[in-house]
Amino acid sequence: MRTFSFGGGVQSTAVMALQALGRLSDPYDVFLFANVGDDSEDPRTLDYYHQHHVPFAKENDIELVELHRIMKDGSVETIWNRLLSPGLRQIPIPVRMSNGAPATRGCTSDFKIRVVRRWQRQNGSCREDPAVTGLGISIDEFERARDDSGYDDQILEYPLLQLDMNRKDCFNVIKEAGLPDPPKSACFFCPFHNKEAWRRLKIERRDLFDKSVYLEQEINKKRDAIGKDRVWLTRYAKPLDEAVGDQLTFDFDGPDCDSGYCFT
Predict the structure, then answer these.
(1) Per-residue model confidence (pLDDT) at position 104
(2) Of the candidates 37, 66, 210, 218, which lies 20 to 30 Å from 28 by C-alpha distance?
(3) Cα(first)–Cα(last) distance of the chain, in Å?
């Protein structure tokens, strides 16, 4: 079984374009989009997914499957509703602690890796016949690539590294395939956003910025109630609406979720 973990961003879109153009020596059977929540993913990513990825995949006979984290009772869990759940004690996103260091995150493993692996196992992967999982990591971020998935029923591979492609190459092949440039893929409230990304959110999409402010406040209310230190969505150790101004800067781009496995 050959699967590709589809994050919906630049690198993932480039791999889909390469398959449509017939440039993958060993094409994927299915592209798996682990949606961490319609209330959590950046709306621009979801809009692009439905407006461009879905019809493009259909036109090019590429199977594209959207997955969600399904609970035992059949309900869908999203990162947003976990963060706002009354009994929250462990924060799944990499919030910044009081010393500025990022906390351990569980969002990637719970809402992407395990969701993809569950589909693979339901569809026949096992120790004797492991599923191949392609990830969209380009050569300008090769340090994110791992040799071992950590599971004996899953093998990782990196088609963009095999083709020696960088992020600029990805945009070129996306254009060649007739697709518009995709936006970066990430949760709109991701603590890995740099200051420029937060300011753009505040200026251009104030509703999402205000929701992020609300989320940070709600997380800290829960932590206050159990006597824990406050945490932040930026590295500046103060509330988001105080940390982010109204003027754009030119910080270097931070990581994103393009690969479908976030930053792993």
Answers:
(1) 83
(2) 37
(3) 22
